[in-house]
Amino acid sequence: MMYMHFNNSYYKKVTSAKTQLETKRKLNVQNKSHFASTDLYMTGNDGNSWDNGQQSGWIGRFMEHYYANEVNESYPLGIQIGSNDISLGFHGEHEHGLSLNINGQDPEGFYSVLNGLSGMAPDISNMIASDHKTELEYLIQTDALANTYSYAITNAFNSGSNIGSYDDNNDLANQLKTVARLIRGGLESKIFMVQIGGFATQVVTSEFSTFSKSENMSYEQAAGFAMTYGTSYYALKQRAKIQPGETLLVLGAAGGVGIASIQIAKAMGARVIAAASSEDKLDFACKAGADLRINYSNENLKEKVKDLTKGKGADVIYDPVGGDFSEQAFRAIAWDGRFLVIGFASGPIPKMPLNLALLKGASMVGVFWGAWMKREPIESLKNFKELIGMIDTGKFTPLVTEVFALDDHGSAFGSIAERRAKGKVILSMA
Q1: Where are the beta strands (DSSP E) in 190-260?
Q2: Residues 154-198: pLDDT tens digits?
Q3: Which residues of the chain are in CATH 3.40.50.720 domains?
Q4: pLDDT for the residue numbered 200
Q5: Is residue 275 packed enough to be buried (19+ CB in 10 Å), middle (13-18) or exposed (0-12)?
């Protein structure tokens, strides 16, 4: 359940104990405890061979390079939280022991496991020579260091506290609480890794989050459907209560949720203005159903919205982008308008002048679809059935623009990170 650090001199003593393991890796024997794509991500390997960096992970290599002089035996350099699975990411090129795992929210649970084993490690200074002395020294030293780390982590956890509050039903939030509390408690670890899952071959879910796909949908379309279309329909239906004939302004219109909101809004009878950063993306948004367009790279967003709406402004604004464009858009909102806060794809979280809401009689409405789905599972399932009905009746077809093989996941992430992606990007296991 853990990786532990050993200083270089001691590590050299025990390398012979790992010869067999390293030989197996060089013979291209995969680690069956990890899904292949996770291995590729954690190691930064191209997937062609185990010799090409597969024995080490990019986090471990990073720590060895930048913190070579800071490694000590008082605390782990890195900590992985929220999973029992040992991450290959923390393997170094020279040391396979730079971090440890903590499962769940409470580091005290980790310590209780260790403390129940055998107490502190025995003194090995006078251990007699034997065929397995080196291996025994390695194991005993591991036990001793585990105890040292567990004390350091537990003390930090007990000394720290959480100022803010998060939803206790949110796994990621619970892990982040642990990180914040450990840092506030004085733990000097350099890297904390949390787990949010992904690339799973199997999943367990509730009956309320399961529904049959439309016969008019491919599996690739279905794979990218739930989050983008679920978010957008909830935003427009429950949060904005958009009406036929109203005008919707969509920022980041060519993205996954942007395209979904355009298609759904048109199916609900709204007029849609697409706003994006390039003519190519706007062409794509208009093909998806947008009526009007704004290139906010070279046009004043506020003035253009006012011009297109004959001075009235947009009734509903759908903003998954954030940053500088949020305030410009809000200044172009109509009386009694609804500004939907979807996300912050651009990075910065905008600081909005609240006087705008007062002057426009407008509402700023948060859209947290994941939390709502958990709180209102029956309504969420109803939403999906209504969306499937729209697809079955030909009101729209879910758009998937790029499908990558699982082994080519790097290209998929590159398309998104470099902002080249339009619509939904899918990884296929076929």
Answers
A1: 191-193, 247-251
A2: 888 889 888 766 666 667 777 888 888 899 999 888 888 887 666
A3: 207-416
A4: 62
A5: buried
Percent of the chain with pLDDT over 70: 73
Q: What is the CATH number of domain 207-416?
A: 3.40.50.720
What is the three-class DSSP state of 403?
strand
| Per-residue burial over 354-378, b = 16 or more CB atoms within 10 Å of its CB, e = otherwise | eeebeebebebbebbbeebbbeeee
Using CA atoms, how far apart are residues 268 and 387, in angstroms rounded to an integer?
11
What confidence score (pLDDT) does residue 18 get?
42
Give the CA radius of gyration of the chain.
26
Do 182 and 189 meet the contact criterion of CB atoms below 8 Å apart?
A: yes
Alpha carbons 409 and 41: distance in angstroms, whole number: 9
- Find where tokens 């390039």 sit: 278
Number of residues assigned to the chain:
430
CA distance 271 to 248: 6
What are the residues facing 339 on neighbouring strands? Answer: 317, 364
Encode pLDDT of 109-129 as tens digits.
Answer: 665 555 555 445 556 566 666
Pull the structure tokens for residue 227.
């989050």
Axis-axis angle for helices 171-184, 133-159 (nearest 10): 90
Q: What is the dihedral of CA 191, 194, 200, 203, to 10 degrees?
A: 160
